[in-house]
Design a protein that fits this description.
about 300 residues; alpha/beta; disordered C terminus
Length: about 300
């Protein structure tokens, strides 16, 4: 199997669908239970790192999508992705790509909407927000009910979305280390340097179902992720991380702030999980200059 393609462009087939979802999957990947919408605008590729996925591919009713590819020879998620993209230059023609972990609970029927909001935001890198009942590493990634999306200074490696520019720009970083820790901080720095936006999409959240850093992954890789991240940050002069909200668009139907400023909506719409989180005050303080602005009205008019 292979993703669907239409007529050739510049001597190679062009994807018939504008978006790509590619999941590096183990035997318990949650997308195996998806029902694929008939009107989907995205191809789905499964990169199987666990040989049992391939061995049992014909057993039961499981969803692999448009392609099931052996990725067992690659040591980590982003090494597997790097190999996949290097071997398939036609993937450069997708409008946007999403690369989620296999333990995220999606609503497949809303993935079209997720890509459309990402594209409309004008951001180069993005991700769906995480539901408040998720296992969470960074508070800024948690869904905020007042927003359709928020511009931020960070998008996590857990489920990054990239437009064509970002994929070309950041593909060489996919093998910068084995753990992928700190890779998202490097993307953030390079986006800022290039004047490109990052966005977290609150309108279509997903749930992270497993503890962060669990499963013995890093021991199996033989690496210390904290040491890898520290080394990467030192090499690229990346300052200590503090998540920030840099602006955004309010959710449809959400009351307009009386003050006209984002901070009113930010404080009113934050749920208990966020306001009681130990990082909330730090995030608010760091974000304050950007929240004393008006909500995004029509990103397509920029």
């Amino acid at each position: 199997m292979s993703p669907t393609h239409s007529t050739a462009t510049a001597g190679r087939p062009r994807p018939a669908r504008p978006y790509l979802v590619i999941i590096r999957a183990g035997s318990n990947a949650l997308h195996f239970d998806w029902s694929l919408p008939a009107d989907r605008k995205w191809d789905l590729v499964t990169l199987a790192y666990d040989p049992r996925v391939l061995e049992n591919a014909g057993v039961g009713q499981r969803t692999f999508g448009d392609a099931l590819i052996d990725s067992s020879g690659s040591p980590s998620k982003f090494h597997g992705l790097s190999r996949f993209f290097a071997e398939r230059p036609e993937t450069e023609d997708y409008r946007a790509v999403m690369m989620p972990d296999d333990d995220l609970l999606f609503e497949p029927a809303r993935i079209n909407e997720l890509f459309e909001v990402f594209t409309a935001s004008g951001a180069a890198v993005g991700q769906p927000a995480l539901t408040p009942d998720s296992f969470v590493s960074h508070l800024v990634t948690v869904q905020h009910h007042a927003f359709s999306y928020r511009y931020t200074n960070f998008v996590e490696v857990m489920t990054p979305m990239m437009d064509a520019w970002a994929l070309r720009e950041f593909l060489p970083t996919f093998t910068i280390n084995k753990s992928s820790w700190g890779m998202d901080l490097l993307w953030a720095k390079r986006c800022a340097d290039a004047g490109r936006r990052q966005v977290i999409i609150d309108q279509t959240p997903v749930k992270h179902t497993r503890p962060v850093g669990g499963g013995g992954l890093y021991a199996a890789l033989g690496v210390d992720p904290h040491a890898e991240m520290a080394e990467l940050m030192a090499q690229h002069a990346i300052p200590p991380f503090q998540g920030m909200v840099l602006g955004g668009k309010l959710a449809a139907g959400y009351p307009r702030p009386w003050s006209g400023l984002l901070i009113e909506s930010f404080l009113r719409g934050a749920d208990r999980f966020s306001t009681e989180h130990p990082s909330f005050k730090k995030m608010l303080k760091a974000s304050l200059p950007h929240l004393l602005t008006r909500p995004e009205e029509d990103p397509s008019a920029r």
